[in-house]
Amino acid sequence: MVASEVRALFSVASRPEIVSLAGGMPNVSALPMDAVGALMAELVAERGAVALQYGSAQGDPGLRETICRVMAAEGIDDASPDDVVVTVGSQQALDLVTRVFVDPGDTVVTEAPTYVTALGVFAAYQADVVHVTMDEDGVVPEALAETFARLARAGRPAKLFYTVPTFQNPAGVTLSEERRPRVVEVCRRAGVLLVEDNPYGLLHLDGDEPMRALRADAPADVVYLGSFSKTLAPGLRVGWALAPAAVREKLVLAAESAMLSHSVFNQLAVDRYLRTQPWPEQMRDFREMYRERRGVMLDALEKYMPPGVSWTRPAGGFFVWVTLPEGLDSKAMLPRAIQSRVAYVPGTGFFADGGGRQAMRLSYCYPPPERIHDGVRLLADVITDELRLRETFGTSAPADSGGPQAPGPDQA
Ligand code: PMP
Which atom of ligand 1 is nearest to the CA of 88? Predict the structure, then answer.
């Protein structure tokens, strides 16, 4: 396990004078805090003896029912609460799935780039990560099939394919509807478990309806990971896995050895919140808020970025992936950006193979719109200066090696 080399810089980046476009933190201050507080007080008064007691490793049955209703919005209408395992965020769900399936030296296939802390999990279980290409429509099914075939020929067949198909972290890319069944089929044919990590699915910013989850059409082939971190509150640490029965049994055993039981209090609080609060309407407001911020970021990129810089246009979620002109190095540039009072996450952390030097992740979820605008303007100035320097002196300073790094929690 390796700490991120940029971690120290991020403690500087959290100073108020710096615009951080680095963090993946949802804007929890938009929650009705009074209602949350009242609900927690009621919970203790009415069900304190249960809420403050140990619970089952699989999670509270009532919450698991509620989770099934939440997943129905993404086309998963056949899920049974029996097949849901509640976890400490979806992060723990991924850890448990990897613990169950992956032995040291096994091969895990992911998108390139991929979620940085998933790379941290795979590294901790000593998996070899192999990346597969994405374009603006997500992972390319032919490239995935080719990667599986190449790995099988080399005697190290893929154990699982980890994907964030919807509003991906970090690239902000979504797997197109047309490709979804093809990706499932490629995994099925190759006998590779598909792990669908979907914390952002309900944060669709274009159109009224969420995307259909991969799991909706492939109940036997997909382990689906969900989370209330982006749709309610990451501080409650409530996520889940939905898995075919045989896998679910192993996940429960793994959960038991990892934590005995999840916080019953937090589970009941989430369940009560969803049952008593106008959550769907709040989700509409959250989407509205993030839609505005995304618009501000994309407009500012258009307005200020010098030629040669390109970026993705996410249809939901929190992130924009920016690609710099040839020769610029996002990690080498970060100290200068922070000096100029703007922070981002360099691309290298999202690759297991040293890729991503020319890229960075920007997020629009947390700073208010005017700060997003200012941050992008400051960043564009830094990039323009770097380009001038490069013209004068050649390439920018080389950075150290890439590879999976553990982010600070504010970068997740
Ligand atoms: N997967 C992805 C793709 C994420 O972006 C995150 C949070 N940044 C997680 C999983 C983990 O979320 P949590 O553990 O809070 O549910």
Answer: 14
Give the residue among 205, 396, 156, 239 at the shortest CA–CA distance from 313: 205
Alpha helices in 130-208 (DSSP H): 141-153, 180-190
Q: Are strands 193-197 and 222-227 parallel, antiparallel or unpaired?
A: parallel
Q: In 3D, which of 171, 163, 221 has the Cα closest to residue 192?
A: 221
Distance 197 CA to ligand 1 centre (A): 8
Neighbours of 367 (CB within 10 A): 21
Burial 263-290 (b: 16+ CB within 10 A, else e): bbbbbbbbbbbbeebebeebbeebbebb
Residue 329 to residue 152: CA distance in whole angstroms? 34
> Which candidate, 22, 119, 1, 10, places its Cα nearest to that of 320?
22
Q: How far apart are alpha carbons 131 and 87 in whole angstroms? A: 27
Mind listing the pLDDT tens digit for each residue in 389-403? 988 887 555 544 445
Burial of 326 (0-12, 13-18, 19+ CB in 10 A): exposed
The tokens describing 347, both together, are 């691309």
Dmax (CA) for the chain in angstroms is 70
Q: 345 CB less than 6 Å from ligand 1?
A: no
239 CA to middle of ligand 1, Å? 9
Residues pairing with 52 in the sheet: none
Mean model confidence pLDDT for the chain: 94
Percent of the chain with pLDDT over 70: 94
Report how far apart, in Å, the C-alpha atoms of 276 and of each of 32, 47, 61, 91, 216 are. Answer: 13, 15, 17, 27, 27
Alpha-carbon gap, residue 394 to 364, rounded angstroms:
32
Going from the C-alpha of 133 to that of each of 113, 140, 163, 351, the distances in angstroms are: 8, 6, 12, 12
Dihedral pair phi/psi, residue 160, rounded to 5°: -150, 155
Tokens matching residue 28: 């929890």
Q: pLDDT digits over 177-227, tens only? A: 999 999 999 999 999 999 999 999 999 999 889 999 999 999 999 999 999
| Mutation test residue for ligand 1: of 111, 227, 259, 267, the one with most atoms within 8 Å of CB | 227
- SS3 state at 354: coil
What is the identity of the amino acid at 36? Answer: V
| CA atoms within 13 Å, Cβ hemisphere of 177 | 5
- pLDDT attached to residue 411: 61
Backbone dihedral angles phi then psi of residue 13, each to the nearest 5 degrees: -65, -20
